[in-house]
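The material for today's practical consists of a large collection of protein records. A record pairs a protein's sequence with a compact description of its fold. Instead of coordinates, the fold is spelled out as a row of discrete tokens. We will come back to this pairing of sequence and fold again and again. Here is such a record, shown just as it appears in the course material.
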Amino acid sequence: MNHFERTGEKYRYFRDFYHFCDETGVGAVDAPPAIARLKEEGCIYTRNDEFGWKIGLKVNFVERLKFC
């Protein structure tokens, strides 16, 4: 969320899972269940591609934030 609020970008690339943990301050043990829960609730998506590991906010989630 901080990245989105600062830049307006709805996604961010990481080299790998551990880079994500380092950058976000989330422990490697805590991250998988947190990511799974956010995906289940329709807040985020993840994807591996040629640029790295991409985590993004889903459009519907961003729209819901506008009403908070």
